[in-house]
């Protein structure tokens, strides 16, 4: 199994989009926290739209579908990031010293 490096440029572009710039790779934990907060925000937006629809507010169907899909994609992305981190950790544990 090949271990590939973390694409730090992807995290930088994500954080620039959010108006925050990471100065160095040592801020990986901060970038990860920011990413988790972003996923949580997407889930909250979808929850708010769902509650608005259930309470009878006039919410366009396309807005509801878009918010649900954004929340779903964000959650799936976070799951994949977690899986990759776990695979890397397990690979490190299998290495002989």
TrEMBL record:
The keyword Mitochondrion does not apply. It is found in: Bacterial flagellum basal body. GO terms for molecular function: cytoskeletal motor activity; structural molecule activity. Pfam families: FliE. GO terms for cellular component: bacterial-type flagellum basal body. GO terms for biological process: bacterial-type flagellum-dependent cell motility. It comes from the Bacteria. The keyword Cytoplasm does not apply. Keywords: Bacterial flagellum, Cell projection, Cilium, Flagellum. Belongs to the FliE family. PANTHER family: FLAGELLAR HOOK-BASAL BODY COMPLEX PROTEIN FLIE, PTHR34653. HAMAP family: FliE (MF_00724). This is Flagellar hook-basal body complex protein FliE. It comes from Hydrogenivirga caldilitoris.
